[in-house]
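Changelog-adjacent note: as of this version, every example in the card shows the full chain rather than a window. The one below runs 440 residues end to end.
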Amino acid sequence: MKKVLVLGAGLVSRPLVRYLLDQPETEVIIASRTVSKAEALIEGHPKGRAIAATVQEKDKLEALVKESDVAISLLPWIYHLQVAELCLKHKTHLVTTSYVSPAMRALDQQAKDQGLLFLNEIGLDPGIDHMSAMKMIHAVEKKGGKVTSFESVCGGLPAPEANDNPFGYKFSWSPRGVLLAGRNSAHFLKNGKDMQIENKDLFRTVSIKEVEGLGKLEVYPNRDSMLYQELYGLKDAQTIFRGTFRNLGWCETLEKVVNLGFLNDDERPEILGWTWAQLTASLINAKADQVKSAMAKHLGIPESHAILSRFEWLGLFSNEKVKSDPPSVLDALTYLMEHKMDYKPGERDMIVLQHEFIAEYPGGKKEAITSLLIDYGIPHGDTSMARTVSLPAAIAVKLLNQGKITLTGVQIPVMPGIYEPVLDELETMKIKFVDRYRPF
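Full-length structure tokens:
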């Protein structure tokens, strides 16, 4: 019996847990701060065990890692290294859906020496994006071609019928994580030009893409795309861009959210006694009873502007009391948005992931390739975000337990031995790309 430890029982955990419980000879231990969440995932399954544990309880965490063959960390990325060090100590494989940090990368040789696989970035973005991109890049190369342009954009959005608020967005994963992404800088290559985007300009660097079946969506750059030049073997590419999809209006609004200071996470205990009008007014040195007009003047836009309408709908000018734990402007905004922009029972979310390639072949032939995944959540069931983030990790763990993945060290899923079986199984779950080719 293989023992799989799942750390975390959050929004994306359920499909992974249920998948692994259905595998023969697999026992699943779920450790969560809130044990009732873990118990809800197991639903009384005889091969499941729920345990109340946190990363702060080091002895308990170590004992859980020690008894497991594989640890899956669905914790915030800042805790992965702590788990990884315990995995090294007790010869336990590690799987995460998060980006590889430099500190995690530094464990590569130690993991290899122990014969361990530390598989990261095996979720949606990162994860399915890597696997589907590499499948197409390798297919082009097998035909003697080279990729000269690569653009990849992914986003989690409300399904069209559930898109009913002014932000065009609802939370299907960590609200704080969504907001913190707005503090990132970006780096990409565009027509041979190296583009370095500072945090304050992230949401100003916006383009519009037409997505078949959905219409126009906004795109803003996602982190450092240039990391993938070597990783994907894109030595001939003049464009290398990774971005995030949002509905129209998100970027102009979040640009103001960032630059007004709403993402500041310094602790401010005094805000707990304030109204939202008072908190917002404090960011622009205005009076609370005049905050909307003062904000319009501060931003240089009319009071009728859509940005102010979104702020007003959210409650930033209201007399509602601020709620935050810990007490910071960022966490207060997170709480407000999470409760205002949630999915109602029966509503569906949607994942959109689109790759665009330009390929050149011997003899001068050029080809434009679009690879598009649109996936919807299940009404009253799992969200698309949960399925697309957690099922790739679950499939990889099954393959690892079966001895079908034999790699060691710190890895991401860019090699055929991982991406082919994972993508093939995802297709059986209707998580499938549609590819279109046209002369360029």
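Structural remarks: The mean pLDDT is 96.
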